[in-house]
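[stage:ingest] chain + small molecule (zinc ion)
[stage:ingest] validated
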Amino acid sequence: MAPELPLTPPEPRQRGFCAWCGHEIYEGNDIFTGAGQMVHRGCMGPMACEMLDPAELAALCGYREELA
Ligand SMILES: [Zn+2]
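[stage:predict] done
[stage:export] tokens:
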């Protein structure tokens, strides 16, 4: 017989709030930190799009701006 598991897992400890979406960040979440703040991994993309110029984002992906 398998050992009995506790009925309720331990409450995840809250570490703070996401600087982008404002939702809770819990211990063990994938996050990025910087400028004394935390953001969810999934929030980094939208935040970067808001903060960076399209040309800067393009350069990070190996693209450059030109006229077609
Ligand atoms: Zn977030």
